[in-house]
Design a protein that fits this description.
alpha+beta, Rossmann fold, Tumour Suppressor Smad4, 2 domains, elongated, seven-stranded mixed β-sheet
């Protein structure tokens, strides 16, 4: 998507551990003041940093600035999902795959973002329905054995066609954005940002025949726990949603909601991938 106009107000979300970001807030305030940008803080951020209480409406911001790592980015993308407000990240975490600049580059990166010098990446979502609950994921939906070290047997169907049963530790359903996370570590395919597909990858399958499957938008997956006495946990972007006992089912479909990631123009998928996963 093309660059945006200059920013007049920006919401701020920070790492869960205050000590992680050091003097980042002070530096951010200086950049905002220099660029005549109003910073908006959710109530919990004001409490976290000891800021004066104020009634900021962060959902009216032009941009969200994240001072954190990929976990904070995912949490923020979920919070602002379908709002039309892009999320721009400064890396104060370990990997920072979703961020645009390092902590050392904060001033230059944020000033460029405030001037509208960024491109927008629209992020598709997946949705899971399990145990009467429904939730959307930006990264991935994971079905995993609730008992550490115990294999579960999953029956899986795509668009009503039965692919049989697989004995495994679990299954990862990932978006393109999430393909370089848990999906990658289990041998799943790397999907370039912008592809609107779902990757289905098994975790430690007890068979030589299990391979990842990539399906296009419009298809749905139904996975059933056919193992007695071992529950199946459903995780959405790393957060627990439900536990499925014997016969429990989870349906994963493509979501209608979208996230918006703001990236400096030079931050491409290939560049970020080679930085994080050098050959």
């Amino acid at each position: 998507m093309p660059p945006s106009e200059s920013v007049r107000s920006a919401a701020v979300i920070t790492h869960g551990r205050v000590e992680t970001i050091g003097d980042a807030l002070e530096r951010l305030h200086a950049v905002a003041e220099h660029n005549d940008v109003t910073l908006l803080f959710p109530k919990e951020e004001r409490e976290k940093h000891g800021l004066p209480l104020a009634d900021d409406d962060v959902m009216k911001a032009d941009l969200v600035i994240v001072l954190g790592g990929d976990g904070t980015m995912l949490r923020t993308l979920d919070r602002f999902m379908d709002s039309g407000i892009p999320v721009f990240g400064v890396n104060y975490g370990r990997v920072g795959f979703l961020t645009s600049c390092s902590a050392a580059e904060l001033e230059n990166g944020v000033e460029r973002a405030f001037s509208g010098d960024y491109r927008l990446l629209e992020l598709p979502t997946l949705e899971v329905t399990a145990d009467g609950q429904r939730r959307a994921a930006i990264n991935d939906i994971v079905l995993i054995s609730s008992t550490h070290g115990r294999v579960v047997e999953l029956n899986w169907q795509v668009d009503g066609e039965d692919y049989g049963n697989v004995a495994c530790d679990g299954m990862v359903c990932a978006t393109a954005l999430g393909s370089t996370a848990y999906n990658l570590s289990n041998g799943g395919p790397v999907l370039v940002w912008g592809i609107d597909v779902m990757s289905i990858t098994f975790v430690a399958p007890h068979t030589l025949a299990a391979r990842s499957l990539v399906v296009p938008r419009g298809r749905s997956l139904v996975a059933s726990n056919v193992t007695a006495e071992i529950p199946l946990s459903v995780l959405v972007d790393g957060h627990p949603l439900a536990e499925l006992g014997f016969g429990g089912r989870a349906e994963v479909t493509f979501g209608e909601k979208r996230g918006l990631l703001a990236l400096l123009p030079e931050i491409t998928f290939v560049r970020r991938f080679r930085e994080i996963f050098p050959s």
